[in-house]
Amino acid sequence: MENKLSRTEEALMVKLWELKKAYLRDLLDAYDEPKPATTTLATLLKRMREKGYVDYTEHGKHREYYPLVKKSQYFSGQLKGMIRHFFNNSPTQFASFFTESTDLTEAELQELKKMIDEQLKSKK
């Protein structure tokens, strides 16, 4: 997507992915205290709709919002952008940084190795 979500829009999007479909009240209820103003959420949803991330179905006077973009699709794009901007477009540099800077346990590293091995097999 060409128009990125702001941090507040992204936080709202995460709640919508969790709920799958939601009215404004449901989204407001998903927030911890202090909750954002209803008008703030309405504005965020309007912008997110304009950017192509959400849409809604009208039920009388109420709108039921739903995501147009899958969570995995969104975060894949975010990760690719981060690799492009911070790691010279090198997934290898990113993987090196990730494995060296995140205090992974031996079991977690073994699990990553297993995933990589499976990907290598599927590429043959």
Give a description of the structure.
The longest helix has 18 residues, at 106-123. It is built from 6 helices and 3 strands. Strands 1-3-2 form a 3-stranded antiparallel sheet. The protein starts with 6 loop residues before the first helix and ends with a helix. The protein folds into 2 domains: 7-67, Winged helix-like DNA-binding domain superfamily/Winged helix DNA-binding domain (Arc Repressor Mutant, subunit A, Orthogonal Bundle), CATH 1.10.10.10; 90-124. A hairpin with a 2-residue loop joins β2 (54-59) and β3 (62-67). It is mainly alpha-helical and 124 residues long. The chain is elongated and about 55 Å long. Helices cover 62% and strands 11% of the residues.
Percentage beta strand = 5-15%
Task: Tell me the total number of β-strands.
Answer: 3
CATH homologous superfamily grouping of the largest domain: Winged helix-like DNA-binding domain superfamily/Winged helix DNA-binding domain
Which outline best applies?
Answer: elongated
Oligomer: single chain
Number of structurally distinct domains: 2
